[in-house]
Amino acid sequence: MTTAPLIKVEGLTKRFGGLVAVEDLSFDVESGEILALIGPNGAGKTTTFNLIAGVLVPSAGHIALDGQRIDGMPVHRIAGLGMMRTFQHNMPFAGMSLTANVLIGSHRKLRASVLDILAGRSFVRDEETQARQRAGELIDFVGLNAYRGADVTTLSFGEGRLLEIARALAGSPRVILLDEPAAGLTTAEISRLSAMIRRIAADGVSVLLVEHDMHFLLPLAHRVVVLNFGRKIAEGGSRDIVRDPAVKEAYLGEAAGALREGAPDA
Ligand SMILES: Nc1ncnc2c1ncn2[C@@H]1O[C@H](COP(=O)(O)OP(=O)(O)OP(=O)(O)O)[C@@H](O)[C@H]1O
Ligand SMILES: [Mg+2]
Hints:
Helix content is 39%, strand content 22%. It has helices at residues 45-53, 75-80, 98-105, 114-118, 122-141, 157-170, 187-202, 214-217, 238-243, 245-252, 255-262; strands at residues 7-16, 19-29, 34-38, 60-65, 68-69, 83-85, 175-179, 206-210, 223-228, 231-236. The strands form two sheets. The chain has a six-stranded mixed β-sheet with strand order 6-7-8-3-9-10, sandwiched between helices. It has a four-stranded antiparallel β-sheet with strand order 2-1-4-5, covered by helices on one side. The structure holds adenosine-5'-triphosphate (ATP) and magnesium ion. Residues 45-46, 88 line the site of magnesium ion.
């Protein structure tokens, strides 16, 4: 039996004036798959995320989520279909507690309108109670329980990144896009992050991951797509990628030999 991929990217191209940031890029992502996008600085990884999340409109090509075209849709509609993302740089809502920051992420699922809230309808309270309970579970899941009521500005950088993931998960995503989630994290936080990502994927959520830390990424990714100057130069399991001569030349260089020792069985 074959199942259709959850995300299908076909011929994706993005030009900024004369610069082609992403060129004729195609790949699929299955439900529950951890797919990594790697490549040198400026290769087009964040641009690809921005195209998938709807922040940018493609110059050419298609993106489908569960068979439905999403390219050109506004960000909030794509998010409403279950596509959640974190950013390369933390974006906390300062002056608010962790719980409030996570609750913002649950917004897409809540049915209540302002009129419902003003009318004091009981389902509004039920929804809010459930959302708060779920926010608490997610804060626990990312290991920040001790800070639940604290202001977000008291968090360390790494803790702030984990909070971003909790907020993205609050929307019950089908796909989560993580842009350099391990950057700036301590070794302990990175191993916690790996375990979290595995659990998120095991629940059937597709994880798209952009990351420069190969020791973190290679054992985690089910499949790796390698970009260079906006073009896909390789795709495969971590073991194949680290051996690929074109990938070594464009990106991994001398580090590949050392990394091969740690690469998992595909
Ligand atoms: N809004 C924009 N306007 C013009 N050029 C842009 C814009 N966004 C990205 N670019 C250019 O597109 C190319 C790809 O950038 P992108 O941010 O996608 O790279 P990246 O792979 O995420 O790099 P990094 O690893 O440094 O985060 C770069 O040359 C960048 O300067
Ligand atoms: Mg980037």
